[in-house]
Amino acid sequence: MAALTGAGLDATLATASGSLSGAVMNYGLQRRLAFRNAGPHRLTAWRYLVSCICAWLCNLAFFFLLHQILTLPVTLSQLVTTGLVAALNYIVYKRLVFYEQIP
């Protein structure tokens, strides 16, 4: 995000872009590190995609609220947004995306 805002991109657009690029790498890491016994990709991949869209929208909404409406600084807005979305993502992944356990 810092590189994008440093290059002149609007902070809200930069956080949205960062959220999308993070989601691309996150699926594989979640499957390998956090939810090793998750169900097959054919079940988890589409749920992950839907959860990413929801997380991306939450990221955008939280950042917009904190930075544009409450006029908090960019760094603080992004830190709070990241914490909120990370907590939300873990709950969604555990309960809805990777909940099947393979014996």
Return the average pLDDT rounded to an integer.
87
Q: Structural class of the helix and strand makeup?
A: mainly alpha
Number of domains: 1
Helix content: over 70%
DSSP strand content: under 5%
- What characteristic shape results from the CA principal axes? elongated
Tally of contiguous helical segments: 4
Number of E-state strands: 0
Largest sheet: none
Could you state the order of secondary-structure elements as H and E?
Answer: HHHH
Radius of gyration: 15 Å
Q: What's the N-to-C terminus distance?
A: 40 Å
Low-confidence stretches: none
Subcellular location: Membrane
InterPro entries: GtrA_DPMS_TM
Organism: Halopseudomonas bauzanensis
Pfam families: GtrA_DPMS_TM
How would you describe what is shown here?
With 103 residues, this protein is mainly α. The chain has one domain (10-97). It is built from four helices and no strands. It has helices at residues 2-6, 11-34, 41-69, 74-97. The relative contact order is 0.17. The model has no long low-confidence stretch (mean pLDDT 87). It is found in: Membrane. It comes from Halopseudomonas bauzanensis.
Topology:
Layout: H1 2-6, H2 11-34, H3 41-69, H4 74-97
Helix pairs in contact: 2-3, 3-4
Transmembrane segments: 45-66, 73-93
Subcellular location: Membrane
Main location: membrane
Structure in a nutshell:
This is GtrA-like protein. By secondary structure, the protein is mostly helical. It has helices spanning 2-6, 11-34, 41-69, 74-97.
Q: What keyword list fits this structure?
A:
GtrA_DPMS_TM; elongated; GtrA-like protein; membrane; transmembrane helix; 103 residues
